[in-house]
Amino acid sequence: MTVQVQTADFDVAAELAAMRTASADIGAVVSFIGQVRDINDGDAVSTLTLEHYPGMTERALEQIEQEAKSRWNISGSLIIHRVGMLQPLEQIVLVAVASAHRGEAFKACEFIMDYLKTQAPFWKKESTPDGERWVEAKISDDEAQSRWKQS
Amino acid sequence: MTVQVQTADFDVAAELAAMRTASADIGAVVSFIGQVRDINDGDAVSTLTLEHYPGMTERALEQIEQEAKSRWNISGSLIIHRVGMLQPLEQIVLVAVASAHRGEAFKACEFIMDYLKTQAPFWKKESTPDGERWVEAKISDDEAQSRWKQS
Amino acid sequence: MNIKILYFARIKESVNYSTEDIVLPADVSNINTLKNYLAGRGEVWADLFNGKQTIRAAINHELVDDMMAINDGDEVAFFPPVTGG
Amino acid sequence: MNIKILYFARIKESVNYSTEDIVLPADVSNINTLKNYLAGRGEVWADLFNGKQTIRAAINHELVDDMMAINDGDEVAFFPPVTGG
Description:
heterotetramer; C: alpha+beta; 27% strand
């Protein structure tokens, strides 16, 4: 269970190798990499700036990992999220989950991403030819998260 | 859409970077890495040997990728599967899917793995302290695949 | 009571504050009454806190709803719906 | 007609063949009748092809069911349920 919030880029290979080789009981590692797209809502994006809430961010991500661990039988998880100014094609986020079996790793990884998108205090601002603008939250993200609600 | 069946190991970092940077329209890359576990059904596993059906294997994997592409809006996909003799902690398979948005990438990646597990002609033989044995197919894999059946 | 308030993203830009320490009037006891109080500061504040915009709140790094009580020494944060990932 | 048959994994080990070219009798026209024909070769073959074990079949690299017709020149393969990934 690891959480990192940083301006620096991350090394996917090293992170996944460390996760994968932590135990020979691990059969599956599912990972998600998010990157900056050069277009959003039809407009060209030249830079993306990520603001966050230091202190709360780490706590929210740790709570999301704990919740994933309580729901599925996973061996390890990792969330790395960048903040600051990024260019198109730069990596924003890495989420990886290791498990003995693939089904739990897939579910836990998607769960973490869906919760991160709606619960972790990050905000994106885009630079477009018309100036800067804050990215609007998507209803589809709320819907994605609500799929996981337990009665 | 790429398929590789090989004895050599693969470089996850290079493969994911190539997939991710193929287009600045890609926002999400979901990947699955499968590796050899040192225990299966309660017995220690010292080596795993993967047999396959050359010719049919590649065709089956290509068909699975095509089916995934027809169901979801994905930008690219990759399947690398190793054959021959492997040790615990060695990588067996990499499946990666790139898409503009994460939901489709998650679904397509898990779909490809579930179909690969039941449709692609690979067979695993384990060496244990009691000798060699062929791995039995799991009903849970058939169930995982049947979730994706379309009426 | 004394609390600290933090503002983020477009809310921070609108109010031109990132943080303030304030002494709350006696009738401000939860997030909802704090929002009403802030809305009384002028047009920019009213636009943000009159309930027409979705403004999320956290107390001491936990997301909370509008009925959550505020206690002396709390760190309260207001921000738009999150957009990371 | 003439066909090629391939065997894989534990089936290959049981029959001690990986491949054979055979001329089919006139009454063998699909996977089901081919399995019955092979089951007549002796005990090892009967154990495999009498229908009690799950044996998958492919014709020309496509998974098929037992009713699929076999044509001259086909490559037919028999194997256990797959276990890759």
